[in-house]
Every structure is written in structure tokens, then in C-alpha cells.
Automatic annotation (TrEMBL):
Stored NCBIfam families: Bac_Flav_CTERM
Protein name, entry field: Gliding motility-associated C-terminal domain-containing protein
Record Gene3D superfamilies: Integrin alpha, N-terminal
Signal sequence, start to end: 1-18
Tagged with keyword Signal: yes
Sorted UniProt keywords: Signal
Keyword Signal: yes
Length: 853
């Protein structure tokens, strides 16, 4: 009996007890307890719901089940039972629940027509009822090790693993949920050719962009391992790290993951390893062993969230089982409590499975060997409901007030800077670490409590000193201070970055921004503006009217000697200004005394330009023989540009656009204006050619083939021969020639003309049909045959009869004329049918012809 229970607990978990004024572990029983139903083999809990799997078929006609419970009115109430499709499919071998989704695996499910084993059922909550919304079958027929043996879900991401068989060929599958459907996004397998990876996917955990897969190596073929995966910003999962453990350790039997922390458990009392992800690597921070040093399998199951770590040993104390609860203190997990089943019995198996909600402090413990409803080994689950403060902070002192949140509302908040309703004001709390408490009353003797440590950090701030007026006339030094030490000072005038010593002589005149840099969560720097007045320097030279019409030289004078002048119009390193050298415009002259504390002054002088304007307006010409006289004011300047003389006579060298420039003056006072002249002659028009006219039919129209300039007129001209003058026949854009001869097109645009090349139009004369009435076939090659001439013949049928109507000749081919061969002299009659290209309709001609010999 004990041996059977021991084997039974290799696959199950259990839970339980503690003294408290609030309900501690609330027992969950099956609606109809049944012996060896494996009720509570797997469990899951959320803020409001719990689910308990029962995947052992009691009889051949029994299918697996999963039971859903809801926390309401301070108690857990049974709501619904989900039932598998068929017997022996292990429906309920793993379960998951959150506020809207339920997952139930059937690790022995067989899809018709496929060797793949295992499936996961997905359910969606519709009001108070959970309805099946998807079925996720084993995607690979070659993996028959129980798809759905392990599963974990985080947000829309689901990872499903397989059971163990001592092989390396299993995979874990990652799905992405959209609405109620799940799409496969990644298939993860261990690298081949190593002595690790056996039983890959026996345990899985996922949270956010991190995923951990256990490969416990149940039969000690190699070494146990835990595979750490990370999802990139592009959504691709890749292996980030592998942790390898000693042969026979069975590490990876259980996996837990939350945020940047992970727990890898073993079921052989060889410790639970706790990792933390830092700078992209998982670092081993702590290894925990059975605190009671009792036999069993400490680390059989593990579960964790931000505040709670659960580690079970269901084989402790003759298989009664115990679950250890740890909390974080001083950045390490410390034992807080042990849970035992109430009135424990041998083979209760408390801790066969443990699960904790990722957001609240709710957790659930499995005891599939417990007696329930009088049925032995019917199983029980124990769930603890406790409100939890959601993580907050750290804050900066300048942050606005924020309403703290807990997984259950209606409680009272207390602590520095927090109101009874939970509004936390960092400025009221002050700098430092503050412990915030939340208390939720659940009756006269029950108050749930949770605490949260919130840190309010300071930003680096420069201490504002009462500084004396700073001037280059006197060197002043002082040390700057800040609210947070350890930073560095920078900026013009800082003589020592560590002490913050500022010297006005080193800074020089002007406004200087000094920066204090110290990397903190609430900022990295603060700035202070310091003004150092320069030594007084004044320019004494008075402003006078200046013009480019007259070169003026003036001496510049300042109040202090030893400085240097700069600006347009300054001749070299002298203190002399020349208007011709500066040119027209406003010129800023600077007198600067050198040195860090040197001073300067400026003087603005205006040199008026000589106004130059071209009087000729921009024009466009179509003739290249145009001569144009340009005009500008004032006189005495020079013209520059293609085709223009100094005196302003413009003769265009050819078509194009010419910018002609008129200049007057020299040096920087030179002034100029310009005008654009455009020469655009009419291009020679191109006229299409027409084919020779046949049969007197029109052959087309003459038209312009080239692009037509705008605002042009047409004139078509004709002459019969090249010796005759041209005659105007049309002024339209196109022309239908009526007479043969030569044609040309004249285009006119203003005073410009352009002619096309002459094109010839030919017309073949129409032949007059003549049928001979006599022919003499005497061999002199003159009128030897009865020849019927046609212009562009198509068909011809000729028949010749004697006077008695007897046919003496017939032909259907044009050109095969009657030669009179073997015919006697006399009169004969003919019948001729024919058609031509000019007369496509067949015509018939009758008549007589005389043959003379």
C-alpha cells in the first residue's frame, strides 16, 4: 500500500495549515470526491479564481476533469466542472487559470489520424460560465511523450512542454494568444550532440520576455540542465544561457520564474537554486536546502512571485508533505513559515503541486492523497487568499502624488506620506526608505495585512550661494556645494572638478553655466548660471555719414590701449577704417582687449551704397540679327556679358538666355544690376510626307510633325514645279492636297518666320480603258494579241466565242490574253469580267473583235 502511494506521489502534490485569526488554508474538495481520481494533481490560482485538475480515470468509462472555484464573500465557492472528450486522455494533467482564460492539458490525448499525443484545451470566461474557445493539439507527430505535461502562461504568451522518456528529442512550444486563439510562434529544442537536454520540457516557466525550460535527465544519461531563453525586441526567442547540474541531481524537476528572478528545483534534496538576471546574464544568488534536514524530496515543486517563494517536500514525514514559504529580506529569500495539512495522514502528499498568483499573495497547495468526503485518496487542494500591495516606486521627491493599488480594495493605508485612501505623496514622505502598510478587515477577528517598502530618492541639486558681484577687475574664488556628494563639477571657470572650485579670472567675462553631474534615478545633473562682468572698454569714435560715392578714411579710438580692432573695412592690424574697403552695408567693428578677463566694445558703421539700376527691361527676341541698345543709371559704368559692348550695344551671338550686367564703382563699393535677354528663334517646322495618290483617292493630310510653338500662324504654300512661284493654298494647321506638286509650311510668330523643307505630293493619272476591235497575230510583235489593259488589276475572266456561240478561248488570269492561235480570220465575240484596286466591284464588258491574218 505505501509503495503504491509513493509511486502515486511521483506525479502529484499537496498542502496546508497554520494558526491565524484569518482563514488560513481554505480546503477545496471535488464536487463528487472519488478514490484515486488524482484530484489536485495540478492546480492554479489567480486573484479571484482557482482551478483543480483531476486527470486519473477511475473506471474505463470515466474521463478527466478540472474544477473551477471562485472567491466571493470571504469563501471559495465551486462554480463549474470542465470534462474531457474521451477516457484515458489524462484530461486535467496540467491546469492554468487567470481572470479570463483557463488552460487544461490532456497529455494522453490522441488526435484521430495522428500519432502525436497530447493536447491543450483553452476556455474563455463568458460572464460566469467558462466556454471552450480553442484546442491546441500536439504539432509534431514524432513527439509522443505527452504534449501538455507542463505548461505556463504569462499575459498572451503560452509555453507547453512534454513529459519525460529519457530522450533528447522533445521540444517546447511557444504560442501567442490573440483574442481566443493561439498561434505557434516558436519551437524550442536542446542543441544536439551534448550530454544534456534529456527530458527537455519536463518543466517550463515564462514571465514577460524570459522563459526557462527544465531538462531533469530522469534516468541519469547525462547531466541535468536548465535552459534560459530571452525574447528580442523583434519578438524572436533565442537561447541566452544554459545552467548544467551534476549527474543524478534531477535539477529542473521544477521551475519558477517571476520578473528577473528564477528558481530551479530538484526532487532529490540537492537544493533549490535561485537566480537573478543582471546585465543580460542569469547569476546564481542563493542555494536553499531543506531547513528541517528531514528525508524526502525538498524542491519537488516551486512557485514564486515578487513577494512569495514556495518550495514543497511532499515526501516529508511519511509522505504527509510540507510546504515552505519564503519572503525577501535584505535582498535574500528567508524562511517565513511551514504549511502542513490539517490533521495530516500518511500519503497526503501535501506539496505535490504549488502555485502562486503573479499579482496577489494568493497561492494554492495540492494534496492528491487526502481523504475527502469519506473517499480515501480522493485528494484536496488548499488555497490561501490574501490581498497584496502592487509594486510601486522608487519615487523621486519631485514626483506627483500617486494612488497605491492592492489586489483587493476597501482596506486602509498607513505609513509616511500616504493617506488612508492610499494616495502616496513623495514630498510628504521625504527622502529615504518608508514602510507602507495595508490592512483589509474581513470580519471582527480577521484583518489581512501586507506591507511594501517604498524608496523616495533625491535629485542632485546645487546649493544656491549668495555670491558677490563678479568682475574681471578682481579675481574671485569660491567652492560650490550640492545636496548629494560624490559628483563632478564642470563648466568654464571650474578649477577643481571634485571640490567645485570656481575662479572668475579663469572663467573670464560672460554668463557661465556650471554643471554638477551625479547619476541617480531622479536625475543626473543640475546647473547654475554665474555671470562675470568684463573690464569696461568703450569705443570713443563717433559715427559719421559714409557713402561709396566717396572713399572716407577715419581713425578709430578706444578708452583702453592694447586692444585689437576687427571688422570689415579695417586695414590690416591698424586702427583705421576705410569705407571703400568695407563696402556698402552695416558693419560691426569690434575692439577687444585680450586675456581671459579682457573686455570688448563694438561700433556699428553704415556705408551707403551707390544706387545702380538697369533701365532696359528684360526682353525676348526671335531673331538673332537683333541689335539692342541697353540703358542704365547712373552713367559711367561698364556693361559685361556675351554679345555686349562697354557702351551697352547688345548683339546676340545666337539663341539662348543672356544675363547682361551693369557695374559701377570699384572694390567693395562696386555696385551692379543686371537684365536678362532671351533669344528664341522659331524652329524649322517638320512636315510629314504623303504617299503617291492612286486611283484618285485621298492619301492623307499634311500636318506639322514637330512641336508647335505657341502664338504661331500657319500658311500652306504650293507650286506645281520647282520653277514656279509658291502660292498660298491654306492657313489651317493641316492641309488636304488636291493637286500634285510641291508643298511647304510657313510658320509666323510676330516678326519671325520659319519654313519647312518642301515635300512632294505625287498622283498617278487614271488610265482610260480601251478595248481593241481588231488584232493581227502575224508574229510582227505589233498587235499580235487581243490585249485588254487594266490599271491595278485584281481579277480577270475572259471568254471568246465564234459567231455560232462556240467557246474558242477562256482565261481566268490577267495577262493571259487571246493570241488567236488556230483560229480562222473573222469576227469573234468576247465576254470579259474584271475588277481592279480602283474598281473593286466586278464589271462585265461584252463586244466583238475582228481577227485579221
Amino acid at each position: 500500500m505505501l509503495r503504491n502511494l509513493y509511486l502515486f506521489l511521483l506525479f502529484l502534490p499537496l498542502f496546508t495549515q497554520a494558526q491565524n485569526t484569518c482563514p488560513d488554508l481554505f480546503p477545496l474538495d471535488a464536487p463528487a470526491p472519488a478514490t484515486r481520481s488524482l484530484y489536485a494533481n495540478r492546480t492554479s490560482v489567480s486573484e479571484r479564481f482557482a482551478i483543480v485538475g483531476a486527470n486519473w480515470d477511475v473506471t474505463a468509462s470515466t474521463v478527466g476533469r478540472a474544477h473551477i472555484y471562485e472567491y466571493t464573500g470571504g469563501v471559495w465557492v465551486f462554480r463549474q466542472t470542465l470534462i474531457g472528450d474521451r477516457v484515458a486522455d489524462s484530461f486535467g494533467s496540467h491546469v492554468f487559470i487567470d481572470e479570463n482564460t483557463v488552460l487544461v492539458s490532456a497529455s494522453n490525448y490522441t488526435r484521430p489520424g495522428s500519432a502525436a499525443i497530447g493536447a491543450v484545451y483553452a476556455y474563455t470566461r463568458q460572464g460566469s460560465v467558462w466556454v471552450q474557445s480553442a484546442l491546441i493539439p500536439n504539432p509534431n507527430a514524432s513527439y509522443t511523450g505527452g504534449f501538455g505535461w507542463s505548461l505556463a502562461k504569462s499575459g498572451p504568451d503560452l509555453v507547453v512542454g512534454c513529459g519525460y522518456s529519457g530522450t533528447q528529442n522533445y521540444a517546447a512550444y511557444v504560442y501567442r494568444q490573440t483574442n481566443t486563439q493561439f498561434a505557434l510562434v516558436a519551437t524550442l529544442t536542446p542543441p544536439a550532440g551534448t550530454n544534456i537536454g534529456y527530458d527537455f520540457g519536463y518543466s517550463v516557466a515564462i514571465d514577460g520576455d524570459n522563459l526557462v525550460i527544465g531538462a531533469l535527465d530522469a534516468f541519469s544519461f547525462g547531466q541535468s540542465a536548465a535552459y534560459f531563453y530571452h525574447r528580442s525586441a523583434a519578438g524572436a526567442w533565442s537561447q541566452a544561457q544554459v545552467e548544467v547540474y551534476p549527474n543524478g541531481s534531477r535539477a529542473g524537476f521544477s521551475i519558477a520564474l517571476h520578473g528577473q528572478r528564477a528558481a530551479v528545483g530538484s526532487d532529490s534534496n540537492l537544493g533549490v537554486r535561485l537566480y537573478e538576471r543582471t546585465a543580460g546574464r542569469w547569476q546564481l544568488r542563493q542555494t536553499m536546502f531543506n531547513p528541517d534536514a528531514t528525508p524526502g524530496r525538498y524542491g519537488y515543486t516551486v512557485a514564486m512571485n515578487e513577494h512569495v517563494l514556495l518550495v514543497s517536500n511532499p515526501f516529508d514525514r511519511q509522505l504527509t508533505g510540507v510546504v515552505y514559504r519564503y519572503g525577501r529580506q535584505n535582498n535574500a529569500w528567508q524562511l517565513e513559515r511551514r504549511y502542513f495539512a490539517p490533521q495530516p495522514l500518511i500519503a497526503d502528499g501535501l506539496g505535490t503541486w504549488v502555485a502562486v498568483d503573479a499579482h496577489s499573495n494568493n497561492f494554492i497547495l495540492s494534496a492528491p492523497g487526502r481523504t475527502s468526503g469519506g473517499a480515501l485518496n480522493a485528494g484536496q487542494a488548499f488555497v490561501q487568499w490574501a490581498p497584496a500591495i502592487l509594486p510601486a516606486g522608487p519615487f523621486c521627491a519631485s514626483d506627483p502624488a500617486l494612488a497605491l493599488q492592492a489586489t483587493a480594495t476597501g482596506g486602509t493605508w498607513s505609513g509616511p506620506g500616504v493617506s488612508n485612501s492610499g494616495v502616496f505623496t513623495p514630498a510628504l514622505a521625504g527622502l529615504g526608505t518608508h514602510r507602507i502598510a495595508y490592512a483589509l478587515s474581513a470580519g471582527p477577528t480577521c484583518t489581512y495585512r501586507d506591507t511594501l517598502t517604498i524608496t523616495v530618492q533625491a535629485a542632485p541639486r546645487i546649493t544656491r550661494l549668495a555670491l558677490p558681484p563678479l568682475s574681471c577687475a578682481r579675481d574671485t574664488a569660491f567652492n560650490l556645494t550640492a545636496t548629494l556628494p560624490g559628483g563632478l563639477w564642470s563648466g568654464t571657470g571650474i578649477a577643481n572638478p571634485q571640490t567645485g572650485t570656481f575662479q572668475s579670472a579663469t572663467a573670464g567675462p560672460g554668463r557661465h553655466v556650471l554643471t554638477y553631474s551625479l547619476n541617480t534615478a531622479c536625475g543626473s545633473q543640475d546647473t547654475l548660471s554665474v555671470v562675470v562682468r568684463p573690464a569696461p572698454v568703450r569705443i570713443l569714435t563717433a559715427r559719421v555719414p559714409l557713402s561709396c560715392a566717396r572713399d572716407t578714411t577715419m581713425a578709430l579710438v578706444a578708452s583702453q590701449p592694447g586692444g585689437a580692432w576687427s571688422g570689415a573695412g579695417i586695414a590690416g592690424v591698424t586702427s583705421t577704417f576705410q569705407s571703400a574697403l568695407a563696402g556698402p552695408g552695416r558693419h560691426l567693428l569690434t575692439y577687444r582687449v585680450p586675456g581671459p578677463c579682457g573686455g570688448q566694445d563694438t561700433l556699428s558703421l553704415v556705408v551707403r551704397p551707390v544706387p545702380v539700376r538697369v533701365l532696359s527691361r528684360p526682353s525676348t527676341f526671335c531673331r538673332t540679327d537683333t541689335v539692342f541698345s541697353l540703358q542704365a543709371t547712373p552713367a559711367g559704368g561698364r556693361w559685361r556679358g556675351p554679345g555686349v559692348t562697354d557702351q551697352g550695344r547688345f548683339t546676340p551671338p545666337g539663341p539662348g538666355r543672356y544675363v547682361l550686367r551693369y557695374e559701377r564703382g570699384t572694390g567693395a563699393c562696386r555696385a551692379a544690376d543686371s537684365v536678362a535677354m532671351t533669344i528664341t528663334p522659331l524652329p524649322q517646322p517638320v512636315v510629314n510626307a504623303l504617299p503617291t495618290q492612286r486611283c484618285g483617292e485621298p492619301t492623307g493630310v499634311l500636318r506639322l510633325s514637330s512641336q508647335t510653338p505657341s502664338n504661331t500662324t500657319y500658311e500652306w504654300q504650293h507650286r506645281a514645279t520647282t520653277a514656279q512661284p509658291w502660292q498660298v493654298v491654306s492657313t489651317q494647321p493641316t492641309h488636304q492636297p488636291a493637286q500634285p506638286g510641291w508643298y511647304q509650311l510657313k510658320l509666323s510668330q510676330g516678326t519671325c518666320r520659319a519654313y519647312s523643307a518642301p515635300t512632294e505630293f505625287r498622283a498617278e493619272p487614271m488610265q482610260v480603258q480601251q478595248i481593241p476591235n481588231v488584232f493581227t497575230p502575224n508574229g510582227d510583235r505589233v498587235n499580235d494579241v487581243f490585249e485588254l489593259r487594266l490599271q491595278y488589276p485584281r481579277t480577270s475572266q475572259l471568254q471568246v466565242f465564234d459567231r455560232w456561240g462556240k467557246s474558242v478561248y477562256a482565261s481566268t488570269t490577267y495577262g493571259a490574253f487571246w493570241t488567236g492561235e488556230q483560229a480562222a480570220a473573222g469576227v469573234y465575240y468576247y465576254l470579259w469580267r474584271y475588277s481592279t484596286d480602283c474598281e473593286p466591284v466586278e464589271r462585265t464588258v461584252k463586244g466583238w473583235v475582228e481577227l485579221l491574218r
